[in-house]
Every structure is written in C-alpha cells, then in structure tokens.
Amino acid sequence: MNKKSRSSSWFYIYPINKKIFLLSKIIIGACILAYIIASAFSGWISEFIFVFLLIILILAWDMVLARMVSSPIHEISKAAQRMADLDFSQPCKLNTKDELQTLGDNLNTTATNLQYALAQRKELTDTLSHELKTPIGVIRAYAEGLKDAVPDKQIVYSQVIVEETEKMAGMINALLDLSSLEVGTTMMKIEKFDFVELVETVAGREYVDSPSGPFHLSYSLPDEPVFVEADQTRLQQVLHNFMGNAKKFVSKNGNIHIKVSILEGLMQFSIYNDGPYLTDDVWIKFHRDKSEINRNGSGLGLAISAQILSMHKAEYGMLNKENGAEFYFKLPITQ
C-alpha cells in the first residue's frame, strides 16, 4: 500500500461506521432530552422518569445494534457453516448496504466458485475413470495372456502393453498440462519472433518429416516476416495440435491448406482440411468424434490449445466449410 492510499484509509469512513456514529449521536441527544424532561419534575418522580427513559433508550440501542450488526453477522456465520458443510442450497441474503452485505455477497461468490470447482472435479474424475478403464483393461488382458503365450505372441503382447501404457502416460501428462494452464501456475515467456518461420518449422515436422495418409498439402504464407509477441513454445504447441488434427481427420486424397494473412494489424493463422462436419464441442476436454480414426486421441489437444490462446487474449474459433472445417486464431502484429 502506498502512502496516498494509506493516508486516505485513515480518513475514509465505512458505511457501517457511519451508521453507528450517527446512531450514537442520536442516543446522546436522546439522553440529553430525557434529562431535560426529567428535570421538569421534582423529587423521586424526576429520578424515576430519567431512569425509565434511560432503560428505554438502552433497549432501543440494543435492538438497533442487533438489527444492524448482530443479525447480519449471525446470517453470515450460518452461511459460512453451510458452505463448510458443502451445502450450497441457501445463499447468504443481506440487504444492509454496507460492508456486511459486501462480505455476504463475496461469500456467495465463493460458494458459487467452490460449487463449480467441485462439479468440475467430479466430472474430471468420472471422465478420467472412464478414459483409463479401457487401457487398463487391455493391459490386464494382455498381461494375463503373457503367462501362456508362445514367444512370438509374447513379443506382440508386450508391445501392446507398452503402447497402452504410453497412451495413459500421454493422457495424464496432457491433463496435468491443461490443469496447470487453467489454474495459472504456468507462466508464459513472452518474446518477439517471426510467426511465419514458426509455421514453416511446425508444418515441416508434421507433414514432411512424418507424413501419414494420402492428402494434398498447400499453403499461403507472406513473403516477409510477420513478428508477434507471444510464448513461442506454447504457440508451437497450438500449431502442432491444429496441424495434427488436420492430418488426422483429412479425408482420403483430401486437401489441407495452411494460410497466414494480415488483417488490420492482426496476424491470422488458419488451417483447413477436407473432412467431417464438426461442432463447437471440439474445444471441450476429452471430446472425441464417433469415428474410429480418433480412438487413440486423448481428447485434450484442442482444450489445451483453447486455454493457451485464451491466455494470449487471442480470438480463435472453428468454422465449418462446404467440404471440411477450418481452425483459426488471430494475434496482434509487432513491428
């Protein structure tokens, strides 16, 4: 806290302080008025009236404080206890228009976020259990088969076990990566680099060094460098996911087209492939289409890509075309 904010906090009067300050001045004025009224009488009657009025003022003070402070605090305490017991059925309802109402609203927000986090954890646990059930079952079946298998079969069974183990390891690593991105524990290393050069490098690895399946690759890239400021390693991960998906889902003898264009100070990357119609569910964790071609995927690549692009505040999306689908994202150009 700097000196200015520290000094201003000394002079700031919070709403609840204003209420108590005003109420205390009213009580003092009422005490003075009670004394004046009692002075109009003489003897024990004067003392009796003064004490009677004081008792009424004290009871009134207690009632007002209970309504202004004690009741809201009690309501907040009950709401906090319900939240501790994971009971989110009743929100904290206050209408005091002061710090206590703000505290209650913050408690409600915390309860909502906690409820969402618990739902996400349950969904993740259920999905992960389902996803790991198949490879674990395969590993168990082939491990049991190793007992009585002939040497040639033992080699085959061992290879299947290794492949299923690698599949599980890849899924878990991808899930941990996505989790670290979502909670913000992964720090981005922002640097300036030529995006066109990065696209050429990743495309070379995906389509030249490790080609798979018959398809026609074309591209449209600027002749000049296009510089952006971003996390180069993470964008390389996004490009690998986009290009890998295009290669996986392109129809036989279909087209894959990579394009980098400049639109009003923004760099737009897009990749199109002939293939099936897609829905917006492709960005959801563990999403897979119903085709056999995607049975070995983790279903996390596009979810990770979406999280990375969101951290860069980049516009991104998917568009269905006449014969296929196009994925794209945009980033500001750096001179």
UniProtKB/TrEMBL annotation:
The chain crosses the membrane at residues 20-38, 44-65. It is found in: Cell membrane. PROSITE patterns: HAMP, HIS_KIN. Residues 67-119 form the HAMP domain. Residues 127-335 form the Histidine kinase domain. InterPro entries: HAMP_dom, HATPase_C_sf, HATPase_dom, His_kinase_dom, HisK_dim/P_dom, HisK_dim/P_sf, HssS/ArlS-like. Its EC number is 2.7.13.3. The keyword Secreted does not apply. Keywords: ATP-binding, Cell membrane, Kinase, Membrane, Nucleotide-binding, Phosphoprotein, Transferase, Transmembrane, Transmembrane helix, Two-component regulatory system. GO terms for molecular function: ATP binding; phosphorelay sensor kinase activity. It is a multi-pass membrane protein. GO terms for cellular component: plasma membrane. Gene3D superfamilies: 1.10.287.130, 6.10.340.10, Histidine kinase-like ATPase, C-terminal domain. Signal peptide: none annotated. CDD domains: HAMP (cd06225), HisKA (cd00082). It catalyses: ATP + protein L-histidine = ADP + protein N-phospho-L-histidine. This is histidine kinase. It comes from Alkaliphilus pronyensis. The lineage of its organism: Bacteria, Bacillati, Bacillota, Clostridia, Peptostreptococcales.
